[in-house]
Every structure is written in C-alpha cells, then in structure tokens.
Amino acid sequence: MTIRRRVLLAAAFAVGLAGPAWAQSLDITVPSNPGGGFDQTARALQGVLEKDKLASRIQIINTPGGGGTIGLAQFATTKAKRAGSIMVGGLAIVSAVPINKAPVTLDQVKPLARLTGEYLVLAVPKSSPLQSVEELIAKFKADPRSVSWGAGSAGSADHLLIGLLAQAAGVEPKGINYIAHSGGGEALSAVIGGHVTVGVSGYGEFEPQVAAGNLRVLAISSEQRIAGIDAPTFKEKGLDVTLVNWRGIFAPPGLKDDEFKALAEMVDKAVKSPAWKEALQKHSWQDLYLPAAPFETYLSRNRSSVTAVLKDIGLAQ
Amino acid sequence: MSSISALLDGFSVALAPANLLWASLGVFMGTAIGVLPGIGPALTIALLLPATFSFEPSSAFILFGGIYYGAVYGSSTTAILLNTPGETASVVTAIDGHAMAKQGRGAQALATAAIGSFVAGTLATAALTFVAPALVTLALKFGPAEYFALMVLALVTVTSLLGTSLPRGFASIFLGLALGLVGMDVQTGQARFTFGQLELLDGVGTVIIAVGLFAVGEALYVVARERFHREEIYAIKGSVWMSREDWRRSWKPWLRGTVIGFPIGALPAGGAEIPTFLSYVTEKRLTKHPEEFGKGAIEAVAGPEAANNAAVAGVLAPLLALGLPTSATAAMMLAAFQQYGIQPGPLLFQTNSQLIWGLLASLYIGNVMLLVLNLPLAGLWVRLLLIPRPWLYGGILVFATLGVYTLDNSLFDVALLWGIGMLGLAMRMLDVPVAPCIVALILGPMAEQHLRRALSISQGDPLVFVSSPLAAGILGLALAFLLVPLLLKLRQSQAVSP
C-alpha cells in the first residue's frame, strides 16, 4: 500500500509540474445519489481519466436533491471560480429546473461537453395483446385514459417522451394516464407484472428482460434504427417523435479562458480513448460527444423544446 | 438437487482464504457503517467500486455481501444502546431495545438481536438459494392495489404502538403523516409543504426524523430533566448472557420474523421496514407479556431484528433473479455487476452460475462471521452505557449530528435534525409517543402513492381493491388484526359480567 501510495504521489507531483494547475486534482459534482445515471457517468469518466493519466486525485461529490437542482445551485455558487471542478448534468436537470422553479438555472454554468445518451423505448409484457405501436396509438386515441404508462417520476425523460407522443398523435397531453414510480426497479416490475398497459424507459434497463422474452419492445425514440435493438423508430411509424436522455458535463461559470480550454482538452482526450469506448459499450450508452461550442447550441434548443413539452403536460408554467 | 451441488461448488469459491478475508473485512466494515447513521451500505459500495475493479468479480461481491449484511446488524447496536437507529429498518428495535438497555439488559438485547439476525439471515439465505425464482414470480403479481393492501396491514401495527392515551397517539400519527407529505409529489411533480426550499423537495429524510425524534429528543429531554433530580448511570445487571427465559422467549419471534421478513423483502416495493412493523405487532398479539411491550420486551427486539435481516436477504431475490434493484444498496450492487459486464436477470443463474453460488455461499459464511464478531462484543459494547450520563448524551448528540451531516454534506439537514429534536423534546414533555409518528411517516407516503396508482390505472374504480383476491385477502387480514382482539375482549367481559 505505501509503495503504491508513493508512486501515486510521485505521479501526482510529476503531473503537477508538467500540466496546468487543475491536473493535480479534479472534483466531479454529481447532482444525484450514488448508483443513478449521473453517478455512473461520473464514475465511468473518472476511470478513464485515471487510467489515461489525464487527471489524478479525482473526487466525486454526490449532492442529491430537487431533481438535480440542489447540486446545480451548489456547484454554480461554491465552485464558481475553481478550475479543477466539473459537474455532470443532462436532460433530467434541463427538465427539473422549470418544474421546480429553481433559482439557479443552467445559464449559471458553462456547457463543457455532451458525452453520452440513451434512447427510450416503449415496451409491453409478453402477455399483452398489443403487438405494435400502431395498435397502442389507436387505443390511446380512442380512449386516452385507458392506456396507463408505467415509468419514472413526473417530468422525467419518460414523461417527456409520452408528452411528445401525445402531441404527435393529436391527443390532449393533459389527458395522459401517467403512473409515476420513484425507482427504476419499481416501474420495471409494474411493467413485467402487467399492472400497467405499457412501460417507458431507457433501453438499457429493459434489455435483460427483452433478452429473456419477458418484454416486447414496440418502438425506440432514435432517429434511425439502432444496431442490436430489434425495434422500429417512431418516425418509421409516422410519428414525428425523437428523444434522447443525454448526459454531459458542465464547467464553473467563472473560469478564465485558458482554464476552460484546458478542461475541454482533457475531456476531448478522454472521449477519444479506447477506455472510454469500452465504458460506453459496457453500459450500453450511445456515444453522443459534442464539444463545448456545438453543445452550447444543442443545449439552448433542448431547453426550449423541453420547456414547451412541460407546459403541454401541465408541469411548468 | 443441482442447486445443492452448485452451492457446494459455491462454498469452494467462498472458502478460499482470500475470499474469507474479504468476507470478514466486509462484515467488519458493514458493522462499522451500520453503527453510524448517515453512512449507509449504498454509499460505501459506491466508494469501493473503483477500488474493486481489479478484483475477481466473486471477491468483490463477497465483500459487498458482507457489507450489506453487516450494516443491517450494526445499526441495531446503536438503536439499542444509544436509541439512535443507524438505518430506518432498526427504528422498531430502538423502542424496546433501548428500554432493555436502560434496565441494564442491554447485553441481552444485543445478544438476541445478534442471534436472531444470524438465524434469520441463514434461513433467508437458504430460502434465497432454493426458492428465489419461484418467489419472484409471485412477487410480480403485486401491483399497486396489492401494495396498498399491504401498507394498510402494516399501518395496523401502529395500533400496538399508540400507548395509553388515544388522543396523544393519534396526534403522533398525524404528525408523521404530515411530515411524510413534505416534498415533491411523485405522481404530479407538485411541491407540497416545501415553502420554496429546494432542500425540502425530496422530503424530509426518514433517518433524520428518526434520529431527531429518538436520539436528539431524548438527549435534550434528559438534559432538561437532569437539573431536578439526578439519575444514576445505567447499571449492567447480572450476567451479560441470555438466560434460559430469554432464549425461551426469543426463539419463536426469530422464526416468525424470518417468515415475515423474507417474502416482503423480496417484493419489489416491500423494503426492510414494513416487516419490522409487522413482526412487532405479531409478537405483541402473541406474547404472554403484552404489558412489557414498549418497556423492554425481549420479543420486541428478537422479532423485528430477525425480520429486517431476512428482508435484506429477500431484497437480493429480485436483484439476482430479475435484475431488479429494490433498494439503494441493491442498485449499487447492480452497478457493480454491470462494472464487470454482467447483467443480473433471468439468465444470470445460467450465464454466471459460479459467481452467484459463490455469493450465496459467502452470505452463509458472512452470517457466521457476524455472529462470531458480535456476540462476544455485546458485553463490551454495553459498557458504553457506563459512561457518565452527561458525557454519554453529549456523545450521542455529536454522533447524531455528524452522522446526519455526512448523509448529504448538508447543513440544512443538521438544522432540520435539531428542529425535529426540539419537536421530540416537546413530545416527550407532553407525553406523546414518538414511535407512531415514525411508522406513519414511513408508511403514509407509500400507501398514498400506491392508492393513487391503483385508482389511476383502474380509472377511478375503487373495486380494484377487492376484485384482486390477493389484495382482498391482505385487507381481510388487516381487518382481522383489528377486530379479533376487540372481539376477544368483548367475550372476556361478557364471560366475567354474568
């Protein structure tokens, strides 16, 4: 142990001499509990940064609460000028800010990079009479409340997807019979057990049940079909709906230009390393890397479209 | 039969010297974190995940399994000795366990908790080994209506915690229900009673309320009273071992606790708290000493402690058989599986059988280690109570505050803890029992969510609660729990009056 620690210290020292100041240490704010998607993203990134020696002494700080808005507020205020700090964020925070009327918004942090994402799928238990998304939409149009949607909490990516679907199908979005669940496992068991009409989730969570034949995927929310997933897109079925539950990282608002650039270069190296590709595959995440400038454009479009859907389903004013 | 040979194979994995070392390290760490409120097994596994990446998967899971079991056991120690439950599953233990400690019977309370945990843990692990897949199929039949019925059944337990004054008991229940409403409503995303505070959006943590009402409230109460009459330190009376009488009164609650705990733990929305409530009410109904309940009945420690350990093994059933994480710790274990590129689920027993059977075998071994570690220590732990009271309560306050701070590193939580502690003080001064408040706090929001889900799916038809035989049966059982004692009383008084 001591030898290893000395090596680490020496390495940290060497990096400290060679690189810019932040390379000595990095802290990653995760605005959720250990185990969730943000946390897994942070820990995967940590592994790659350590393995490729892009940063050392990486600390992960979990600040859960308020759908991520508490972590966001803490990061934007207490780390405003700290060069060695980043925060994980994504669609969940984009949606939580207007729902919770959070005083600190994503305007107060700087988008650094979009990293990964998961497409969402609709799935029914194997005993369900519904065989295709057309049949589901027909039932939904005929009697909106007769379709119960088992998914995550109100305002989650799952909820947004159904809001978009209702719009595309011409159903009043406030009439959605949305059955919210707090944890992933709870929603999944309600779907397999046939207690709800249809389940909505990121594909990764359903995958083992699909492989075992307990669930049947009706459609996926991507632009094109995804290799390895046997499901049509909504677009193929004539519904103009796409959605990706993206995750990315943000930098403190008060960084100097060279400090921000150094972070951006570090991330750029990390996402191009084989270790990162391996991590993506292991978690079945899509590679959705966007560097800072295009990410900023994407984010602003994403924020306005999410707010529009939230207004439709009655979760934001 | 193939299960048995596979399990023997598993033991050969788990009994490798290195893996034995990991198991004992896990059990030891688990006990330590269980003692601290705030630091739970989920966070510990999260912190260890990167470090275990270079391990063999089986070694890592043996370590995690030990932490998981150890944490549940460790939290009972502080619940009994310091009235500070480390996890919500030990809240019920604190009621009679701490009362026993005050009477100088802390060592016996610790011993019955340790042996009960061992018995329940071992039996439940055996059940996990052989019936997990079948049980999970049954568990999936539980929909919102059935869960609501189960919550109603669990709420009946409150009746056995009410104390002597009904208005005071109900005041406590309503306080708990009100506190449970704080936060964002899961179904509609609307904030309730948050007063614009983002920190309150996720509700008030159950651990914060439990520690505030039990530990801080009690410590403040003792401080407030101390000026008037001095009390002696808690003496340890007689032997530190369980007497024949203790054994006689403990073994049935252990077994009943196991039977209650395992299946409910295996339910995807069951958890480890509800079985402890159900076990408490069952023991109170069956005991020959109901007058001791709340004042240090050994059954009230033996049953719930067995129940929570059995439930913890139950939680592993849906995780291994379906890949369903049903607690924060299970979610971390799932993340750990994924780290090794293993997807728990229906196919896991075929694709990674050596790992699974190794994990199951190490759970048996972990249980033995927990007993070996904790039973001799019981006599040592109770010596904590020999610390002079001002020091002891000062220590409890520091310990509780630090523990709650480490929960989310939030000063808001600390302020909340002390606010609730003041409430606990007020309740004690007004002679309002605190236990019903906590039970209502845990069950109220769950019952509400399941009720609304059930009614939403049925599009408002309340018959959904009786049209399902399972839900109707559970509701009938709840009714029987309420009515049978009343009828018995009625018959007794009729028999006496003429």
Structure description:
The complex is a heterodimer of chains A (317) and B (498). With 317 residues, chain A is α/β, with parallel strands linked by helices. Chain A has helices at 2-18, 37-51, 69-78, 91-100, 133-142, 157-169, 184-192, 203-211, 257-271, 274-282, 292-312; strands spanning 26-30, 58-62, 85-90, 110-125, 148-151, 177-180, 198-202, 215-220, 244-251, 286-290. Chain A has two domains: 20-117 and 245-312, 3-Layer(aba) Sandwich (D-Maltodextrin-Binding Protein, domain 2); 118-220, 3-Layer(aba) Sandwich (D-Maltodextrin-Binding Protein, domain 2), CATH 3.40.190.10. In chain A, strands 1, 2, 3, 4, 5, 6, 7, 8, 9 and 10 form a ten-stranded mixed sheet that branches. In chain A, helix 6 links the parallel strand 5 and strand 6. In chain A, helix 4 (91-100) crosses helix 11 (292-312). Chain A is globular and about 60 Å long. By secondary structure, chain B is mainly α. Chain B has one domain (2-496). Chain B is built from 20 helices and two strands. A two-stranded antiparallel ribbon of chain B has the order 1-2. The longest helix of chain B has 34 residues, at 106-139. Chain B is globular, with a radius of gyration of 22 Å. At the A-B interface, helix 2, helix 3, strand 6, helix 7 and helix 8 of A face helix 3, helix 13 and helix 18 of B.
